Fold this sequence. Notes:
The complex is a heterodimer of chains A (297) and B (184).
Chain A: H1 6-22, H2 26-38, H3 42-61, E1 71-79, H4 88-102, H5 114-119, E2 137-141, E3 146-153, H6 155-160, E4 162-167, H7 172-190, E5 195-202, H8 205-218, H9 226-236, E6 251-258, E7 266-274, E8 280-286, E9 291-293
Parallel strand pairs in A: 1-2, 5-6
Antiparallel strand pairs in A: 1-3, 3-8, 4-7, 5-7, 8-9
Chain B: E1 2-3, E2 6-7, E3 10-14, H1 19-23, E4 30-39, H2 45-53, H3 57-60, E5 68-70, H4 87-90, H5 93-98, E6 103-106, H6 112-120, E7 124-127, H7 132-135, E8 139-146, E9 155-170, E10 173-174
Parallel strand pairs in B: 3-4, 4-5, 5-6, 6-7
Antiparallel strand pairs in B: 1-2, 4-9, 7-9, 8-9, 9-10
Amino acid sequence: xxxxxxxxxxxxxxxxxxxxxxxxxxxxxxxxxxxxxxxxxxxxxxxxxxxxxxxxxxxxxxxxxxxxxxxxxxxxxxxxxxxxxxxxxxxxxxxxxxxxxxxxxxxxxxxxxxxxxxxxxxxxxxxxxxxxxxxxxxxxxxxxxxxxxxxxxxxxxxxxxxxxxxxxxxxxxxxxxxxxxxxxxxxxxxxxxxxxxxxxxxxxxxxxxxxxxxxxxxxxxxxxxxxxxxxxxxxxxxxxxxxxxxxxxxxxxxxxxxxxxxxxxxxxxxxxxxxxxxxxxxxxxxxxxxxxxxxxx
Amino acid sequence: xxxxxxxxxxxxxxxxxxxxxxxxxxxxxxxxxxxxxxxxxxxxxxxxxxxxxxxxxxxxxxxxxxxxxxxxxxxxxxxxxxxxxxxxxxxxxxxxxxxxxxxxxxxxxxxxxxxxxxxxxxxxxxxxxxxxxxxxxxxxxxxxxxxxxxxxxxxxxxxxxxxxxxxxxxxxxxxxxxxxxxxx
Lengths: 297, 184
């Protein structure tokens, strides 16, 4: 055991961002293959086949899956016995910036002071790495490793996402049906269907959003529990279909995470209807010797 | 093209698109667009619509007669449709249709009012998946046509070859079950 090298942290974060933005994971590709096999609407099949082929070409060319390369969101697990350099988080950010340059990310960071940024009055940065990541989430864990997950969140789902209270009436079904109905209201306007829904249920808006992000990180298309299937099936009943063209695959999967709750008739739910390429994510682990992707892909 | 449980009719469209060519298309038709297309989104389409309404497009060096406007940014990350029902984009479509735009290309449902406005002006709405990695091979050339200060959101002119799309609204009819998708 020894100290984690700072250059390994930056290199791992760079590779993680590029992997997240340019490739499907095996479970994600399998979900599309299943959908293509089942779908009977020819327009819907055309979209599903195109999304899968696009993913294969993006991986082969190491090119962005989508021109909206997304906002980097970082979830970091910090081993309690990990020996880290003092500037480890800066190294993560440097790696993310370098990943945005080489992928390349879309140069969409807005110039100017606070008000100028809101009004987009000073134009955009030419450098993709000016797109700073959202504030990182850090979780403790056992061991000596540093684990970095990068998620790239596109703009379309952000228009359609909601974080609101739901009166649970002592029924989980009430909560998830309400959340599914929010998504059902939004999917036609989303455009980039099939959606992949991420849900977080917590005690505050911040916590529900964090849980939603963790659900995206941990979600597996091959493993869907009863409640996740309930949400997916409810959305699929809309018949909106891929790209809004009809068919039976409006939603490919739902990933949810439920946090601690408080005594109350209210639960705070964050629902994010991800686009057809999401979740765009990858995870790397760094130890004192080297770094590696979380799973062989 | 035959796929799955049915056949999709594919129509080749060369820009500029004539009124006669547009009239032949119906919602659900698959098309492949070749030739010059314009690209613009949130930042420039309201500005362009304003200039069009003032009759000053010629001063900008932009000819919209029979044009296609793809709702996308253009950057090294590629091209791909942004949501067309954003206020800045959908709110510009009627004015741009009056100025000759024959086909608006993007994604997401439009409101019934917009679908009707497109029909009144002989204009179409088509949608395309965000296949940026595949679309890169379809771009033959690219240049900024106007508003360079907007960066990747500038008004671009592209030459494309066989850009795939599906007609989503034509002659007042839309493929969407409910045309209530306007951004709230």
